[in-house]
Amino acid sequence: MSIHDKIASIKETGRPVIGCFPLYPPLELFDAMGLAPVILWGFSDNIGRTPESDRHLQDYTCSVARRLAEWVLSDAGQALDGMFMYNACDTLRNLPEILEAGTAAAGRPIPVHRIHLPMAGPDPAVDLSGYIRDELDTLILELESRYKITFSAEKFEKSVHRHGKIRELCRTLEGFVTDGRMPFSDFVRTVHQNGWHSSDVQVPFLSSVIEKTGCLPAGNPEPVKGRVLLSGILPPPHGICDAIEAAGLRVAGNDIATLYRSYADTPAPGADPGRYYTQFYSQHYPCPTLLQTADRRTEALIRLARERRADGVIFVGEKFCEYEYFEFPYLEKQLKAEGIQTLRLEIAMGDASSAAHRTRIEAFAEMLGERV
């Protein structure tokens, strides 16, 4: 089912749909207030061309932004009742004005709700909790006024528990990839499509997949060629995921923004949005789109590689994503010092499963196979 169908099914419930970007919006808050948040990433299966977006964005803009803008500015974007964003990379932080102007010019303006996250380092002398609390309080007032709804601390705490359960189930499902019960490409489809459901559907959906998959026998204890982590903003296209496993590699884990970085951790439950989101953003699993977490990124990636007994890391570089590419050289150097080999794949618009990518993956697998 496409994102268009999923949003249509949500709208049948009468809940306003809020399109969210970047990747880590306050899902619990929207859900508690009766809104249906949908993260607008993962359009590669739905949008191959971007003629509308190309009128507004340069062709050296990453495919994430181009596809997101294409969807919002096209007729499909009419399904949204609002959008939400916070400051992340340079491209995405400047996109709301383009989308606001574009939808207004088309005669269907979409309101954009924002918060600003202070990108300060982990300095214990700097207390950012008051600033983040003020941002959340302002957002709550804005949502209450716009959609004629009311914030409830009790509903928020229940929503926090529900989303914590969703992240826990995603981690359980990832374990089936690690032990060979589930192909990584199927895992990607399941997690991404689950995010297009309303949260009350996500828990039973993931639970049913886990129940079915858990009955399958585990794969061989050790892969033929080696165990790898995948890292990047987006997972590789499904054809490339399949090529990785066909080459004899086991995807032992991932450090991907739409996957593990999104469900790795969750703050302690509570009824106070200011306290919850201060912890959520300041202690978030490291991601270059959250600059305040950058100092912890290398340590986290190496620790994950050790935990999953990875022989190699495949970096999936989204073309023109400068935040990821700034870090790749240093991360590669540190991983190789740990005896962990690396491969860098660059994915651009239109890349699905190129022969060049498959050849490099097979060569990488052969190299790891000689070391195992």
Summing up helix and strand content along with how strands pair, one would put the structural category as alpha/beta
Total E-strand runs: 8
CATH C-level class: Alpha Beta
- Helical fraction equals 40-55%
Low-pLDDT stretches: none
Walk me through the topology.
Layout: H1 3-11, E1 17-20, H2 27-32, E2 36-39, H3 63-73, E3 82-86, H4 90-93, H5 95-105, E4 112-115, H6 129-147, H7 153-178, H8 184-194, H9 199-214, E5 226-232, H10 238-246, E6 249-256, H11 260-263, H12 273-282, H13 297-307, E7 312-318, H14 322-337, E8 341-347, H15 355-371
Parallel strand pairs: 1-2, 1-3, 3-4, 5-6, 5-7, 7-8
Helix pairs in contact: 3-5, 6-12, 7-9, 8-10
Describe the protein in words.
With 372 residues, this protein is an alpha/beta fold. The chain has one domain (16-152, 221-372): 3-Layer(aba) Sandwich (Rossmann fold). It is built from 15 helices and 8 strands. The protein has helices at residues 3-11, 27-32, 63-73, 90-93, 95-105, 129-147, 153-178, 184-194, 199-214, 238-246, 260-263, 273-282, 297-307, 322-337, 355-371, and strands at residues 17-20, 36-39, 82-86, 112-115, 226-232, 249-256, 312-318, 341-347. It has a 4-stranded parallel β-sheet. Strands 6-5-7-8 form a 4-stranded parallel β-sheet, sandwiched between helices. α2 (27-32) links the parallel β1 and β2 (36-39). The radius of gyration is 20 Å and the shape is globular.
Task: Give a summary of the structure in a few sentences.
With 372 residues, the protein is of the alpha/beta class. It has helices spanning 3-11, 27-32, 63-73, 90-93, 95-105, 129-147, 153-178, 184-194, 199-214, 238-246, 260-263, 273-282, 297-307, 322-337, 355-371, and strands at residues 17-20, 36-39, 82-86, 112-115, 226-232, 249-256, 312-318, 341-347. It has a single domain, classed as Rossmann fold.
